[in-house]
Amino acid sequence: MKTIAIHSYRGGTGKTNIALSMAECLARREKKVFLVDFDLRAPSLESFFEYKPSYFVNDFLTGRCDAKDVFVKAEGFNDGLFLGFASSEIREIKEAMREDKRKQMKILSRILNGKDLLKDEVDYLIVDTAPGLRYSSTNVILSSDLVLLVSTLDKSDLDGTKRMIEEIHEILDMPHFVIINKVPEGVSGEEVSKEVGDKLSQKMICTILCYCEVMSLRGRQTIFHQQPEHPFSRAIEEIVDKIS
Ligand SMILES: Nc1ncnc2c1ncn2[C@@H]1O[C@H](COP(=O)(O)OP(=O)(O)O)[C@@H](O)[C@H]1O
Ligand SMILES: [Mg+2]
């Protein structure tokens, strides 16, 4: 099993769209994929589906269920795609915001145990993380084989991504790649490279343009699911080629 964390410095860079699209892409290639919403403060995978799962990731983290109980088969997708949702109940979100070290150490051990139980049954575990530098994301990063960092060209986003790489990814020696998303039309490849600087350029595996069609789906569906030939979808295929 390969575990891939999709992370970013800021929210809204496109992590959930990219994570779900990559998961579907791998499932179309006949892989068994578990996609899990680990953005416990702002769950968003649920907006793409209408499931009422029996258990949430939160239940697994607090020992109320096993890792396998969280995952439900994605209906209307290729056979191999399974989803784990985060709870959007305010009580659970408040609990997720408690970042004390003891609790997070327990969570790290739960994640590692959960991964161990899944490892023989799953080809890819894709984790959609919470943005920024926080324990919950560091736990996921520590438990992953590869981290994909999604940034836009916004200065604060790029600066934050560079800092994050220096502060965690290089220290933890994690394999990581950068995806620059929402590049405005008309910005050349050279301009992107200049803007992101040497540090990120070396790690950049893909740029994705900004498409109104993606936004017009309003977080209810991915363009990847709807239009496999769309340039966004082709960019996802390119990323999956590079990491699989
Ligand atoms: N390449 C893109 N072009 C245009 N809009 C995009 C693109 N990627 C993501 N978006 C939009 O950006 C917003 C945030 O995306 P989302 O995947 O929820 O990000 P995150 O999970 O990082 O918060 C959504 O409205 C989504 O439709
Ligand atoms: Mg998200």
Identify the CATH architecture: 3-Layer(aba) Sandwich
Distance between the termini: 11 Å
CATH topology: Rossmann fold
Mean pLDDT: 94
Record field, number of beta strands = 8
The molecules bound to the chains, other than polymers, are:
adenosine-5'-diphosphate, magnesium ion
Q: What is the beta-strand fraction?
A: 15-25%
What best-fitting shape do the alpha-carbon axes yield?
Answer: globular
Q: What CATH first level would be assigned? A: Alpha Beta
> How many structural units, i.e. domains?
1
Secondary-structure element string: EHEHHEEHHEHEHEHEHHH
What kind of sheet is the major sheet? 8 strands, mixed
Helix percent band: 40-55%
Q: Give the strand order of the largest sheet, numbering strands 1, 2, ... along the chain.
A: 3-4-2-5-1-6-7-8
The CATH homology group name: P-loop containing nucleotide triphosphate hydrolases
| Structural class determined from secondary elements | alpha/beta
Description:
By secondary structure, the chain is α/β, with parallel strands linked by helices. It contains eleven helices and eight strands. The chain has an eight-stranded mixed β-sheet with strand order 3-4-2-5-1-6-7-8, sandwiched between helices. The radius of gyration is 17 Å and the shape is globular. The protein binds adenosine-5'-diphosphate and magnesium ion (MG). Magnesium ion (MG) is lined by residues 15-16, 39, 44, 128.
